[in-house]
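Honest question from a wet-lab person: if I give you the sequences of every part of a complex, can you actually get the arrangement of the whole thing, not just the pieces? Trying it with mine:
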Amino acid sequence: MKKLLVLGAGTAGTMVVNKLRHRLDADDWQITIVDQDPTHYYQPGFLFIPFGMYARHDVVKPKRDFIPPGVDMIQADIEEIEADKNRVKIDGDRWLQYDFLVIATGTHLAPDETPGLEALGDEGPDNIHTFYTLDGAMKLEKYLRTFQGGKLVMNITEMPFKCPVAPLEFIFLADWWLQEKGLRDDTELTFVTPLPGAFTKPVASKALGGMLEEKKIDLVPDFNIEMVDWDAGKIVAYSEDEVDYDLLVSIPLNMGADVVGRAGLGDELNHVPVDKHTFLSGKHENVFALGDAAALPTSKAGSVAHFAVELWTENFLRYIDGLEMLEHFDGHANCYIESGHGKGLLIDFNYDTEPLPGKYPLPGIGPFSLLEETEMNHWGKLMFRWMYWNILLKGKEMPVPALMSMAGKWSVG
Amino acid sequence: MATEVIGGVEVHVDDEGFMTDPSEWTEELAPALAKEIGIDDLTDAHWKVIRFLRDDFAQEGQTATLRRVSTMANVPTKELYQLFPKKPAKKMSYISGLQKPVGCV
Ligand SMILES: Cc1cc2nc3c(=O)[nH]c(=O)nc-3n(C[C@H](O)[C@H](O)[C@H](O)COP(=O)(O)OP(=O)(O)OC[C@H]3O[C@@H](n4cnc5c(N)ncnc54)[C@H](O)[C@@H]3O)c2cc1C
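Yes, you can. This is the full assembly:
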């Protein structure tokens, strides 16, 4: 009996077991998946919670509902990975042996790495928030209910972090929400980022930067935060620049699972360096990393995980039969960007091609406009939640190709 | 591709002046590159960072980020800002003859 062990039952891990269970003979292959948390979170939905557009029940479901029959699911803390011995320790003294290991433990918030952000826990002042966890998003929703205006600052701590468009979406939605509440004139909105512009890739950065300007949201680029000064109500950069806030909304440092770091499998942020086409660890020929856990030069996003798992599955089936893996994965990412007032944008890109304007053809539903605000794109984003729970996680075919296509895109010269 | 003469040596550079061929770089070039961006004296502390960047690049094929330098070479970010004022990521890679680190997507 061969053993496939999957660490983490989030977006990526869940898709992996769903894709593979019916492709691997149950008489020959045992598939086990381990996760510490019985709840599956639809993380893209966290964005809407502070503004009362979604509630808790819209974004949680039991993990079990998404694990197919024939897969052993264990709820436990993953404590040690001994890749040299092909085994993983859970629950203090239980060792799981494997033939192949998939690390899909994601990336999590590490606020303690930035002095002053500990306030995101239960200590310190109550005007420091994040919407990157369900708890955080719910606390922020409560805080906003009594918000009276002032300086609202959205700050990104450091690259890389998951879903790099979410902070922009947050500030666009905040702008809209404040208008609805009659508070926009009393609120200064500032977007503070370590990047040189609104986004990493030049064409999108320009388009999104233009939208910030239109909405009268200040952009402070190249800001590498060193600390939060609670008493003075300001964030301070290593360069000694400062930005004042009355309400700070932060994306803290994102780090891969500690257990990955302890096992010596991670980089400086505990993300696993892997081949960017095959996801195979450079150190062990039976260890893969998928989803946010992997260190790859593309976005950490559910859509990327989805495209990656789809191609990886075919490759894995070749690999176990001794065939060479095909170097297919192109870093394809496809993200809806909520821009407020019931509209949204769509961007589609990969390792080599930055987000371009044009049309995104989607058989039967689309086309969606790329890099342009439309109501259709907003509906695309809302529809995505249904697709996530009902199609994507269960490993069914999505009506989107895994590899990026240039169809409908315009080149920008 | 454009070339520039730095410290008496002709090297290939991009439009921002970063060297494009890491193999054209030698330790002798570093002081001249540093002068170009207003750093007149390369101390041991600078050299620790430069050598780490070069070694790390040789292994990883990409320029280390500030976070990577601070954890792997044990040079706190604060110090990197003192050594390479205002824009340490750009300045340290410029002097080391490497492309600036990609601020990943
Ligand atoms: C606010 C927000 C908005 C987002 N919006 C979008 C969007 O619009 N579009 C998009 O494509 N993506 C979006 N994302 C990103 C998307 O949610 C993630 O990229 C995706 O969920 C990654 O999947 P994953 O399986 O790699 O990690 P996860 O889904 O995070 O799963 C990791 C799992 O590993 C488990 N785990 C970790 N360590 C251990 C351990 N030691 N022991 C046991 N279990 C462990 C965790 O419990 C978790 O279940 C958003 C994310 C956030 C936070």
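Two things worth pointing out. The two ends of chain A are 56 Å apart (CA to CA). The longest helix of chain A spans residues 302-319.
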